[in-house]
Model the fold of this input.
Amino acid sequence: MNKKRQAIWDKSGGKCWYCGCNLPEKGWHADHFEPIQRNWWNGTCEHPERDTVENLVPACASCNLNKHSMPLESWRKIIQGYVFSLNRDSTQYRLAKRYGLVQETEVKVTFWFEENGY
Ligand SMILES: [Zn+2]
Done:
């Protein structure tokens, strides 16, 4: 791991900044906490000044890809809405719930870094 990635990894001691899972040594992502909003059509970005080690946090691939270029609060709302869309769109989910395999809770989406004092 190069020095920059090591510094990012060390921010959480190898946990995903968002979900808190243990990151694999290979395949973890450095996420721009405040999104840089890369333009897919030419590779430029809206906020190049945010591309700093201070703004990069360690994240698992799932969280990084799902967060994409969303600000944190928008992403939180999206995740919070997943139970609603599962109930609306997924017969399998509704059946799994009916048979007791899934239990819904009213928990608010909280990220690892929030529960760990950052
Ligand atoms: Zn994660």
